[in-house]
Amino acid sequence: MRLVLASNNAKKLVELRTLFAPLGIELLAQGALGIGEAEEPHGTFVENALAKARHAAAASGNAAIADDSGLCVDALGGAPGVLSARYATLFGGPRDDAENNRALLRQLEGQSERRARFVSVLVALRSADDPEPLIAMGRWDGEVTAELRGEGGFGYDPLMYIPGFGRTVAQLGAEEKNRHSHRAQAARQMLALMREVWQLG
User: Where does the record place the catalytic residues (predicted)?
Assistant: First the structure.
């Protein structure tokens, strides 16, 4: 089965290919089919993931899966949230991981409450008009550090400290991250749903 990933994020594609390997499906990025990015106008991860999956399914004629994910910080009322990938643009900066991290640290200056969670929502559709989307969600709790730590991962990984590991996500190995991350949790739920509902694997 071919499944189109509604993203052109190469690192996300690698992560999800590893996580979905047990199903034996062909997962390819929408860009490989000449499909552009979908609009993400909604205020929740679920709505944006559904919009992206519908866009990719309609444009490709294939089943599609979308991930919408980000960092939700309690002290900021859940921000950056769905704007995680472009958080710095809210303050006049470019859309860039390093700038997003700097913007987050500036917003948290002097703040002692730094609890946060990574959230990932996966939505899969058999077709653009599938009335029964499969929806899975993963959450990974931690806290935002005061400085960047680690060289791995992407996005906010160098700032997200996971107490159970005593390290930031950027200090974890890829295998550890793929076992425990918000995206890994959502992917495990999605694997179970695809086996049960779509009869895959």
Answer: 68
Q: Report helix angle 10-20 to 182-197, nearest 10.
A: 50
Looking at residue 15, its pLDDT comes to 78
- Residue 160, SS3 per DSSP: strand
Is pLDDT at 135 greater than 80 in this prediction?
Answer: yes
Task: Please give the Cα distance from 139 to 160 (Å, whole number).
Answer: 13
Residues belonging to the binding site for Mg(2+) are: 39, 68
Report, as residue numbers or ranges, the catalytic residues. Answer: 68
When divided into structural domains, the chain yields a total of 1
Query: Tokens 């921000």 appear where?
Result: 79
Q: Which residues are annotated as a binding site?
A: 7-12, 39, 68-69, 154-157, 177, 182-183
**94: CATH:** 3.90.950.10
Domain with 127 in it: 2-197
Beta bridge partners of 70: 119
- Token representation of residue 20: 């979905």
